[in-house]
Amino acid sequence: MATEIDTQDKPGGFCRDCLTEQPEGRTRCRACGSPRLLRHKELYGLTLAHIDCDAFYASIEKRDDPSLADKPVIIGGGKRGVVSTACYIARISGVRSAMPMFKALEACPDAVVIKPNMEKYVTVGRQMRAMMQDLTPLVQPLSIDEAFLELAGTERLHRDPPARTLARFAKRVESELGISISVGLSYCKFLAKVASDLQKPRGFSVIGKAEALDFLAPRPVTTIWGVGKAFNASLEADGIRTIKQLQAMAESDLMRRYGVMGQRLYRLSRGIDDRTVHLNEAAKSVSAETTFFDDISSHEQLVPILRSLSEKVSTRLKKHDIAGHTVVLKMKTTDFKSRTRNRRLEDPTQLADRIFRTGLQLMERETDGTKFRLLGIGVTDLEGSSRADPPDLVDQQATRRAQAEAAIDKLRDKFGKGAVETGYTFGGKDRKR
Questions:
Q1: Fewer CB within 10 Å, N side or C side of the chain?
Q2: Is residue 402 pLDDT above 90, yes or no?
Q3: Is residue 206 part of a domain?
Q4: Active-site residues: which are they?
Q5: Does any domain span residue 15?
Q6: Structure pTM?
């Protein structure tokens, strides 16, 4: 494995700052003096990359407010929310994504907390996506700020091998968007993603095929996709902590112990990953959730919140002309334990009314006096909207509610979201949440 600070005598190196080719043995660029040299024996033969923005939300806020440059910045909800992301200064103090806000402020009391501005972040994400598509048509987004790219066959277009094209792209992102990215370059998705996280921020790391086994061997099993806390505990109980231990085990033994996941352990521990980069991989779910300022146990208080979230989900489904077969309810208790309930519908839906009423039935079983800090609703098993919400020949009221919702949508499109409210959400802004 090689990163930007590897200075061994390896052919084919270049400076990441000025892109000047470097002779073997140098520790600084012969043209600009930069120490950011990139060398690797397989550097010019690898084509699959993972690009990940560095502290994306926080970087945008620092770009837009230079006074924040040297301050710890946390992007997240209020006192009862969680951390969406934190800049690297805040991370030094132990702040991490998904950490409860009160714990983050205990770790870093001097942090500047900024409420997320998703509209601004989405705009920057789209700009970067467009820049990625200038490199290659094979861009597979994973989220607003990361994607896989396959650059095989682009050498003639860019008159450079993928490694240099990616280095030039990183410079362009910094220059035009004012944020930084980290790049992982390898021969497969798994190792490209691992590589992009090795030298953050502003990293560029390479993992070649010849070194994959040795690179992976000393790393913890949690490096492998799908090995979370629960599964890691199972592996630890069996005495398995490092990837080297998995490399010494037979595939049949791993599958006998862990089923399908055993096969994944066998393959990825050896750097075997045949997945290709897919163009515009479809979203798997659409959801909305909110964290309350005060814990809520009252069913009466939860109902209007559920209705409002259902309308948000419905709006997104209709905007993208998709529908979902399964409604999923998510609730989180005061001790951060999640309850997830779901119900599959006979026909896919994009209606707020059906999403809400299905979620309400699921929620009624959970509102037994338990206090909740978070509520969410969403749909999965997505498809096009052509078969969504056929007329209900049995429940005529459902058909009338669907017609009323269509009328409300037209009024909101014309006069704004607040033009019409249902009885469930009317006056919702004044409710204590």
A1: C
A2: no
A3: yes
A4: 146
A5: no
A6: 0.70
